[in-house]
Amino acid sequence: PAQRELIRMGQEGLLVRGGAPGYAAALRALAAHPDALRRMGLAARQSVLDGHTLDGNARHLATLLTELAGR
Questions:
Q1: pTM over 0.85
Q2: Radius of gyration of the CA atoms of the chain, in A
């Protein structure tokens, strides 16, 4: 799942199981801990800026294609 590639549990967000009850529990936990919510939001933003921008992905793809062309 793509979410697990972007989100480390408790660091950039929460990975939730259990359908609606699980989501509700996660939302209650986040509402009760706004500092943690803000910290995870900032960490998630930085993670995307560091490794998941359009330019970064384009550079990575160009590198892979260059390597494949050399084979």
A1: no
A2: 17
Q: From residue 51, how far is each of 3, 22, 60 by CA, in Å?
A: 14, 29, 10
Around Cβ 71, how many Cβ atoms within 10 Å?
4
User: What are phi and psi for residue 65, nearest 5 degrees?
Assistant: -65, -35
Q: Could you give the residue ranges of the DSSP H alpha helices within the chain?
A: 2-6, 19-32, 34-51, 54-69
Rounded CA separation 49/60 (Å): 14
CA dist 40 and 30 (Å) reads 10
Q: Which portions of the chain are predicted below pLDDT 50?
A: none
Confirm if 65 and 23 have CB atoms less than 8 A apart: no
